[in-house]
Amino acid sequence: MKKKFWDCCAPVYDLAMKKGDAGDRIAAEYIAGYLAPGSTLLEAACGTGRFTCALAPHLAQVCCCDYSQKMVETAKRKAHVLGLDNVSFSIQDVTSLNFPAASFDSVLAANVLHLLPEPEKAVDELVRVVRPGGLLIFPNFVNAESDSSGRRFLKLIGRLGFQPQNEWTSVQFLDFLQDSGLSLVSHRMFISKQPMCVAIARCRDVAF
Questions:
Q1: Alpha carbon distances (Å) from 124 to 3, 87, 119, 183
Q2: How many Cβ atoms are within 10 Å of 2's Cβ, its own excluded?
Q3: For 42-54, how does the pLDDT look when each residue is reduced to its tens digit (9 = 90+)?
Q4: Could you give the CA distance from residue 101 to residue 90 in angstroms, rounded to a whole number?
Q5: 8 A C-beta contact, residue 88 and residue 61
Q6: What is the pTM of this model?
Q7: How would you label 186-197 residue by residue, b for 16+ Cβ within 10 Å and e otherwise?
Q8: pLDDT digits over 92-128, tens only?
Q9: Among residues 133, 141, 145, 150, which one has the least CA distance to residue 185?
Q10: What distance lies between CA 99 and its chain's CA centroid?
Q11: Which domains does the chain have, with CATH numbers?
Q12: Closest Cα to residue 50, out of 204, 208, 190, 168?
């Protein structure tokens, strides 16, 4: 999807996703349980910072990036209002990150892999920038498990130009991650605006 679509969505994205706020908060608590206090996190494709703002209080430093400037601006404003001074922001593409290898203790990419024509490229980049043995965290909508209300929501936003590249079930999503060379540590389903599977993984070739 083009940047213009997400730039236009940025001012209303949180309002459109408000029904999923409770589910996202519970998912963030689940994720926080796997993050070491004082560690560093990259959130790539951060959107409006829904996970960033929930997780930053648990961490030493969070770096956030998104390829939509308007999304980044929205996330930055939210972090400022909440007094989160350990969060930095940049405009970057999750498939081509400007960070050195092994820069972060953990990386997170929420609800983006199903939007990409080649999601394996994003996984490869996140593997590159996470330190050996670090966690890769993927909260992702699994639209193929949507109930009728979820399907109606997808149909509505589809009229606005929203076209996911992959409509996975949770099983298909987890299979994709394992086929991409990741070893699952844990996974759990949450009810957000749409059904969301949170997968926590490590690189398969790292001993732990």
A1: 22, 24, 9, 14
A2: 10
A3: 999 999 899 999 9
A4: 17
A5: yes
A6: 0.86
A7: eeeebebbbbbb
A8: 999 999 999 999 999 999 999 998 999 999 999 999 9
A9: 133
A10: 17
A11: 3-203 (3.40.50.150)
A12: 190
